[in-house]
Structure formats: structure tokens, C-alpha cells
Amino acid sequence: MLARAAKEAVKAASGLRAYASASGGLPPRKVAVLGAAGGIGQPLSLLMKLSPYVSELALYDIAGTPGVAADVSHINSKAAVKGYAGEDQLGEALKGADVVIIPAGVPRKPGMTRDDLFKINAGIVKALVEACGKHCPKALLNIISNPVNSTVPIAAETLKRLGVYDEKRVLGVTTLDVVRAKTFYAEKAGLDVSKVDVPVVGGHAGVTILPLFSQAVPNAANKLNDADIDALTKRTQDGGTEVVQAKAGKGSATLSMAYAGALFADACLRGLNGDPDVVECTYVASTITDAPFFSSKVKLGKNGVEQIFGLGELSAYEAEGLKALMPELRQSIQKGEDFALEKQ
Ligand SMILES: NC(=O)C1=CN([C@@H]2O[C@H](COP(=O)(O)OP(=O)(O)OC[C@H]3O[C@@H](n4cnc5c(N)ncnc54)[C@H](O)[C@@H]3O)[C@@H](O)[C@H]2O)C=CC1
Ligand SMILES: O=C([O-])CC(=O)C(=O)O
């Protein structure tokens, strides 16, 4: 049993990474992680060190990165690793970056919403994105810091002000919602999780997270009733809170987020490298609803977002969910934009 599980895990890992052996012929790519000494930052740095798509890995935080970088750099994979600590080293960390992953900021404690993090994280994201606009304006930004529904609009406004905004290059990371939806759906329907896909649209907070189980592959409608779908939807929406409560004051999801962040960053890198079939859900500037930012399936290419796919056919339950999420999503976007404009 254990041997089989171990074999499956190795297969999954090699499918994800193909490790260094697949890296021949790939163009050199620099990835910077901002907040690299944190709960997400450390395992994410480890996973990006294992990525065959990364040749240079810059690990930045306000402190602690020399240690993380020294540790991760001993792994015998391709990427050259360097640690950067403190604001005066931020420019150097960003220079030449193709992808910048931003998990910098404070996490939730039990009883808090993601929006409760706005007060601290809005300023952190704004300052870091400003530096990106100055030092690597062409990089794809992967924004993990919460509240994502507001931090992505903050990033957009900040870059607009610097005159370097490209809406194809600012991406909010909602991959963990997809990862959770796949896991919960496969478990409930008794499916092989490695063969499951579930689009998740909307935003990244509570009811704004809308999994589209009616479009899940494979379709398990004959195995799941309306109550099951309702329970799966709520569990996906509350996935972050489930972890926050289980950690009981010691933060929020870090390991599953690092996994999801690495999947998404690899997808961005594959797109940059010209892989023609890279489709992921991500929270971006969008016109598919009347909210100026929205998460949906997106094709990633040489310049970031190449195509934004529509929502497809929704079940009546999902259509209700969509209607219900719009006011909160719009409000969070407005709050982010107001903040960025106020702080000019
Ligand atoms: N998008 C998503 O799906 C998810 C987002 N998150 C969010 O990710 C963020 C980070 O979470 P954790 O890693 O658990 O927190 P953490 O507190 O363990 O780590 C955050 C790191 O950011 C660093 N930091 C703070 N200010 C900084 C600055 N100005 N420049 C560079 N680094 C700075 C800290 O020194 C720390 O090392 C939180 O806002 C959390 O809510 C967490 C899970 C999922
Ligand atoms: O719930 C949180 O605060 C962290 C997060 O965004 C998630 O785990 O989805």
C-alpha cells in the first residue's frame, strides 16, 4: 500500500517537474520570490529551485533570506540561487526577472477575514510592485498576498501611475482554490484526482470563490446530488478558513499554497517559453463580467495573458453564486483602487 502511494507520489512529482533532465534547451529564466523567508516563501523557494524552467532564483525578504538562500542553494538542480535582504537589495533582486512571485505580507488568524489583512498588506504590495515597475517592468507578477481581490487592483493602479502597466502581466494567484476543488471533488466522487479538473472563477475570498462543478472533468453528475455540490462549493470557499482554524493562530495555508504557487509560476514560465497549451484559472483585468478584475480560465503565452475564456454554461446554482459574489468583488476592487490612488 505504502509502496504504491510512494510510487504515485514520485510519478506525480516527476510529471510536475520532470526535474533537471527536461531542462535541456529551455531559455534562461530568472524568478524572484518576494517574502521568501515566510511560511509560503520557504517551501515555494524550494519548489522553484526544483523547477526545470528556472535558471536564476532571487530570494528576497526584509530579513532571513541569506539563510534560506544558502540552504536551498545546496540542492543539486539547475537554478543559481541568491538571497537578498532589506530594501536596498530589492532592485538587484528584481533586475532581469521574468516572473516575480509575491507572497509577502501578514497571514490571517482565526476570526479574521482576508479583508482584515488589507491595512498591512496593501502598503506592502504597493511598495513591492512599485519596485517591480522600476526594476523589471516586463516581468509577469504572480500576486499571492491577501486580500488578492484588492491587492491585484492595487498592483494595477500602481503600475499605471508609473506608466508601465500591462494588464497581461499582472496575475492574482487563485490556483489553490482550483487545487482544493479538485481534491474535494475527486474524494467525494471517488475519482482519480490526477485526472480531475475543476474550473474556479470569481475572486479569492469566501463567496467570491466560485467552483464550477457542472464543468468538472470527468463529469460525476450521476454520483453527486445537489446537496453534495452545495457542500463541495462551501468547502472550497472555506478551504482557507479550514486551515486557519486548524493552525489555531499559527497562520494560514503555506505548504499547499507553495505547491499551488509553484504550479502557477511554472505555467507562466511555460507560457513565456512558447508552450502553446497553457491554460490556468487566474484573477486578472477582465471584461467577461462587469467587474474590472475577475478570475477565469486564461491562456498564458509569451507576453502573459494571451486569451481570457468566458464562463461557459453555468448551472442554476452557479448562476446564483455568480450573482451573489459580484457586489463583494466589486467593493474589494474599488477599495484596492481607492487605496492606490489615495497613496499617490
Ligand atoms: N493567494 C492565496 O491563495 C493565498 C495567499 N496567502 C497570503 O500570503 C501571504 C503570506 O502568507 P505566509 O507566508 O503564511 O506569511 P508569513 O508571515 O509566514 O510570511 C510572510 C513573509 O513576508 C515578509 N514580508 C513582510 N513585509 C515584506 C516586505 N515589505 N517585503 C518583503 N517581504 C516582506 C515577512 O518578513 C515574511 O517572511 C499572506 O498575505 C496570506 O494571506 C496565503 C495562502 C493562500
Ligand atoms: O485563507 C487564508 O487566509 C489564506 C488563503 O488565501 C487561502 O488559504 O486560500
Automatic annotation (TrEMBL):
Top EC class of this enzyme: oxidoreductase
Record organism: Chlorella vulgaris
One example of a Gene Ontology biological process annotation: tricarboxylic acid cycle
Binding site for substrate: 108, 114, 146, 180
Matching Pfam families: Ldh_1_C, Ldh_1_N
Annotated Lactate/malate dehydrogenase N-terminal domain residues: 30-172
One annotated Gene Ontology cellular component of this protein: mitochondrion
Domain called Lactate/malate dehydrogenase C-terminal: residue spans: 174-339
Any one GO molecular function term: L-malate dehydrogenase (NAD+) activity
Similarity comment: Belongs to the LDH/MDH superfamily. MDH type 1 family.
EC number: 1.1.1.37
UniProt-listed Gene3D superfamilies: Lactate dehydrogenase/glycoside hydrolase, family 4, C-terminal (3.90.110.10), NAD(P)-binding Rossmann-like Domain (3.40.50.720)
CDD domains: MDH_glyoxysomal_mitochondrial
UniProt key word Ribosomal protein: no
The protein's assembly and partners: Homodimer.
Lineage: Eukaryota, Viridiplantae, Chlorophyta, core chlorophytes, Trebouxiophyceae
Reactions this protein catalyses: (S)-malate + NAD(+) = oxaloacetate + NADH + H(+)
Protein name per the record: Malate dehydrogenase
Catalytic site: 204
Keyword annotations of the record: NAD, Oxidoreductase, Tricarboxylic acid cycle
Binding site for NAD(+): 35-41, 61, 121, 144-146, 257
